[in-house]
Amino acid sequence: MSGECRLYLVTGNKHKLEEAGAILEPYGIKLEQAPVTEKLEIQSESLVDIALYAARDAYRRIRLPLIVDDSGLFIEALKGFPGPYSSYVYKKIGYTGILKLMEGVENRRACFKTVAVLIHPPIEKVFIGETCGVISDTPRGMGGFGFDPIFIPDGHTMTYAEMPFEEKNKVSHRYKAFSQLGEWVRKSRIKCL
Ligand code: IMP
Fold this sequence. Notes:
- By secondary structure, this protein is α/β, with parallel strands linked by helices.
- It has a single domain (5-188), classed as Maf protein, CATH 3.90.950.
- Helix content is 34%, strand content 25%.
- It has five helices and six strands; from the N terminus they run E-H-E-H-E-H-E-E-E-H-H.
- The protein has helices at residues 14-24, 47-62, 86-101, 165-171, 173-187, and strands at 5-9, 29-33, 66-75, 109-120, 123-135, 151-153.
- Helix 4 (165-171) packs across helix 5.
- The longest helix is centred in the N-terminal third of the chain and has 16 residues, at 47-62.
- The termini are close together.
- The structure holds inosinic acid.
């Protein structure tokens, strides 16, 4: 890789852009919001299929080197729900709805997953990050977004939403996916904008 590398994130979510941008910065990557912010979401059980489809569709529309981040919360006691449907479920019932479903449930194990797809033709690469932990009994914290107030990563007592931005960004599922992506770009010889 030569010089600074500009990549575009297809998202309307400012938090995702901030988190992923901060993770990629040390790798010499400048992440910007793509001129399309809406992802085309197919229905599938697989985050990889969903992210790949959305990334290919976005590339057809903007023809710029881009990344799509598709994430989901997989709760063991709910057989992986909401998983690939996390966005829909969040919009409909939010984290309070999830806490209701988890009332009286002893097994609180859950994992957050991020699939980050990079398209920079002819290259198409998939990076996966996962952080496991537990669902809290009550929502805690004001930071972050989405399900952050109810997720406590392993080895921590705070929810993602209670952690300072930099701390979530050192342990999160997004960190694990995007730091692999950054490492790959640094080592590769792709031409950057
Ligand atoms: P998507 O990747 O935009 O489809 O996100 C799926 C759902 O998970 C959305 O409701 C997001 O708010 C939520 N989500 C994605 N990433 C995170 C995260 O890092 N913390 C908490 N919720 C998240």
